[in-house]
Amino acid sequence: MIKKLSNSKQDIWDKRMLLLLAEALAKRIADSDVDWCEKIGAYSSNASMVKAGKRGFTIKNMVAAARLHNTSLDWICGLTDIKIKNVSKTSGIELIEEGLRLLKK
């Protein structure tokens, strides 16, 4: 069963895509919402429409974001809480941090 976020208009996949957007801005993967949307093949206004609950990201956008962020589609869609896609490319410290983050939930 796919999870729906409580008290939210957004589906979990849109919420997690917005988390990836915030991460992209923090890590300087993208300079702005518009820049990130262009990188994942979304319309430049898409992020603001998703934030407002008026639109959702497409599957193509989710696949592109997963590739850009080395994140699994299972995580984006709420099927798992494990965000990191390729463990072999991840340092031990990142794995420990991810595990601790999951334990705090």
Structure explained in plain terms:
This protein is mostly helical. The protein has a single domain, classed as 434 Repressor (Amino-terminal Domain), CATH 1.10.260. Helix content is 53%, strand content 0%. The chain contains 6 helices and no strands. The longest helix is centred in the N-terminal third of the chain and has 15 residues, at 12-26. The protein is globular. The model is unreliable at 1-7 (pLDDT under 50).
* Total DSSP E strands: 0
> What would you say the CATH architecture is?
Orthogonal Bundle
Q: Return the string of H and E elements.
A: HHHHHH
Q: Helicity level, as a percent range? A: 40-55%
Low-confidence stretches: 1-7
Distance between the termini: 20 Å
Name the shape in a single word. globular
The average pLDDT is 84
* Whole-number total of structural domains: 1
- The CATH topology is what? 434 Repressor (Amino-terminal Domain)
Radius of gyration: 14 Å
